[in-house]
């Protein structure tokens, strides 16, 4: 296979924070002297007490622990807000572009400090204490960042639930972490469509979750009329108005929880990934600075949603820790037209733009003109995140969006890793389209075979990380055992990523996708088991199996095989009903792209579903189904193939 490779442009090698030699030296230092390296990187933050103990970690079962900067004391909001407000109160912290063109807000660091402090005081008034959990269910409005930072300011732990999730998903997450306060909006607005957020919260709190939540704070976004429950629901503008702008940041131990973020795994229930204070912020800040080569004064735009980890680390924590001007966009790339992203780039003179390949593929197929009619001259660096970027989309991004001028950082990482792990650095790494390239400082990737044997040189295998890094998740909320079982038992002594990966002769890493039962839909992680349990919750469904299928825009689509209860008929109407059902149960991102009724599923004699076969059929690849002789009923394969064409 011929591969293109783009060398580092000379001007970049010269002016970048990190060039090739510096990358090599820093990588070596982080490996040989982690304490020295990470103590120095910790100096990027303001500490109440600078840590003496730097790295204290072991992935071994007998002595399993992950602690970074443990005796250090700091406050995340202090670092993201106050220290910049003190020096540059008028510098813009958040540029907000609303869903409707022309709607905008600019929040300076000075204003941010006041907003965050007022809300932090309002949380306290509502009875939220250090260590308590707060669920944030907000659209992409500045109040989402205020709420995150207000939690951090008083030592409360936030759990953001993406505003596209259903009442049921919201209820489960509220219950799992026991939030006593929920902050939401009357409605969200995306692409001109309204999302009934407050009504969703009301539905979520109808049952058990309602017994836990004491207060709901509601931001007025669209002005829609919503029901307010006496004694529980309060308007945001009322509560903050009553509060003072003085709220001293709570000194926090470096290993105290900062946030929980739920993510899908191979089992049915999403797990609450827990990140802590010191290591996470060092990691978010360091990666934001080096990977985007961020310079003060530049406008940084991460086009993700704050409901996902990308938004946590790069719209809010990493960017603000570095005193950046961060852009927050409420809308979608195709509203009011396909030029929206690039118009925003021009309007705010954006320097770094960071998005998921799925958005790029969707725009790419609408033609170049939407892009080329804008200037984009302010852009310096382009970023990609969330899923493998196919070389075709990469080249389009590079040539058309970046005018062959801007390096692309294809950043591989996960909710669990807190920030970037494997990625090019714009002034140091020659680029190969489709490859996340090289590990960052302190990241020790290895490829192992299914027995755990470490593979050397150019090879392909399962991606593991051999040692801890500061941004690593610390536990699964309330389930330390699940944390250990999920990540450290498949290959003992190593963190298992769940991804497959190839390494080429130049030592570049190429992520090939998940090797577990997780699918990546539009850069979002969806557990197949979650969709399956939603399907079997329907009265007519006996059994379901869900796999990923290739999808031009989404990367992967959701393909569901459904067996109905005896006497039920799988017709077009029921297919539609089931697809809508999943959408309602989990949220629009879980909507199956294809649903096939089948009299039975391919199972081994011990009853295990052979997903390999289901994946091949979903891919329309009937020629390489592999060994089907271990099936309890090999005849099922013919029935599945025969039913394939009715699936969509
Ligand atoms: O499979 C990898 C894929 O997304 C997974 C992590 O998903 P999530 O926790 O939702 O975080 C997404 C945002 C960081 C990974 O296990 N993934 C993420 N980035 C890339 C990627 N696959 C290939 N290339 C990437 N740059």
From TrEMBL:
Residue ranges of domain AMP-dependent synthetase/ligase in the record: 82-468
InterPro entries reported for this sequence: Ac_CoA_lig, ACAS_N, AMP-bd_C, AMP-bd_C_sf, AMP-binding_CS, AMP-dep_synth/lig_dom, ANL_N_sf
Keywords: Acetylation, ATP-binding, Ligase, Magnesium, Metal-binding, Nucleotide-binding
Recorded catalytic activity of this chain's protein: acetate + ATP + CoA = acetyl-CoA + AMP + diphosphate
Cofactor entry: Mg(2+)
EC primary class: ligase
Domain Acetyl-coenzyme A synthetase N-terminal: from-to ranges: 23-80
Binding site for Mg(2+): 536, 538, 541
Binding site for CoA: 190-193, 310, 334, 522, 583
Domain of life: Bacteria
Entry keyword Aminoacyl-tRNA synthetase: no
Entry comment on modification after translation: Acetylated. Deacetylation by the SIR2-homolog deacetylase activates the enzyme.
Ligand binding (ATP): 386-388, 410-415, 499, 514, 525
Sequence positions bearing N6-acetyllysine: 608
Annotated GO biological process: acetyl-CoA biosynthetic process from acetate
EC number in record: 6.2.1.1
Protein role: Catalyzes the conversion of acetate into acetyl-CoA (AcCoA), an essential intermediate at the junction of anabolic and catabolic pathways. AcsA undergoes a two-step reaction. In the first half reaction, AcsA combines acetate with ATP to form acetyl-adenylate (AcAMP) intermediate. In the second half reaction, it can then transfer the acetyl group from AcAMP to the sulfhydryl group of CoA, forming the product AcCoA.
Listed name of the protein: Acetyl-coenzyme A synthetase
Organism: Sphingomonas desiccabilis
